[in-house]
Amino acid sequence: MTIDEIENDITFLRNGKLKRIRIQKEDFLTFRSELIKQPDFKQFRGIAQHGGHIDYEYTEIPRS
């Protein structure tokens, strides 16, 4: 997964074009390093899946 793909996925989640994205285990660290740079980082929710994959959703209410 490239940085451009990650930025596009984050934008699509934020704008509602995607409801959920799945990040593969091997892409997690790269994805997270870009995600934490976002000003609305706390509005992204990661849901752990079997096999080490993570599904991310965007919520209107930031987590605490």
Can you describe this structure?
This protein is an alpha+beta fold. The chain is built from 2 helices and 3 strands; from the N terminus they run αβαββ. The protein is 33% helix and 20% strand. The protein has a 3-stranded antiparallel β-sheet. The mean pLDDT is 95.
Instruction: Give unreliable regions as ranges.
Output: none
> Pairing-aware structural class of the strands and helices?
alpha+beta
Please summarize the sheet with the most strands: 3 strands, antiparallel
- Spatial order of the strands in the main sheet? 1-3-2
Protein name: Abortive phage infection protein
Q: Quick recap of the structure?
A:
Helix content is 33%, strand content 20%.
Tags for this model:
64 residues; alpha+beta; three-stranded antiparallel β-sheet; 3 strands; Abortive phage infection protein
Topology readout:
Layout: H1 3-15, E1 21-23, H2 28-35, E2 44-48, E3 54-58
Antiparallel strand pairs: 1-3, 2-3
